Amino acid sequence: MQMQQTTDATEAASAPVLAIDGARATIRLNRPRHLNRLQPDDLAALMRLFDRVEADSAIRVLVLTGTGRVFSAGYDLNSVAERAASTTEQPSAGSAFELVVNRLEDLGLPTICRLNGGVYGGSTDLALACDFRIGVDTAEMFMPAARLGLHYYKSGIKRYVSRLGVDNAKKLFLTAQKIEAPEMLRIGYLTAMVPAEALDEEVDRVAAILAGNAPVAMRGMKRAINEFARGELDEADADLRHRDSMRGDEIKEGIKAFAEKRPPTF
Fold this sequence. Notes:
4-stranded mixed sheet; 2-enoyl-CoA Hydratase, Chain A, domain 1; 10 strands; about 50% helix; 12 helices
């Protein structure tokens, strides 16, 4: 499925947009004139879209991307500044953003971030919460928290450390230096790096593979992998899912399809 990239001049800004094509759902950040910087209302919209996608059993894979020349410039700094200037205790904008990113990471279906361009600030964590990140070879990223005087929220730091390693997390957070696509690939931030003209083909290829695999087995293994990465594995529950899979319909179809030398139908 080719992703049509509209220009800043023709695309009206809006909350994130959902498109469904068969087993694939695509959520597109859609404020191109402001580099897809997320507004407070966008966070609630993303939560609703995540719920909708996860509730539809026909959807097997989710792609997250942006309109225009970058993926996202992160969360609106004006909202962060308003929180910093407030003298009353209230739930922070950062807390709301953290909930959205954690919800994305914990989605039951596999997720792909289609990095159509640069990724900055909090959106680096949004992309990192996806299972796969496929980016163009002109992409770049940076995490400016240290320049802004911001101590990043703990689950975001944990995600950086568990997925990229301690040294890379320190480099990105403490130096606040920009890195480019080859370095993003080297440290494991990108799953794959491709020329812009090959981006849709690679995303389509990976999405088709994921959409064709056993959804219940993938959901359980994704959960276990994420729990392992956090050091929070529920061993009893993982063992139960394993035992259930040995008696389930998916393994019956998978073994039958293997014997018949055909793709399985889950």
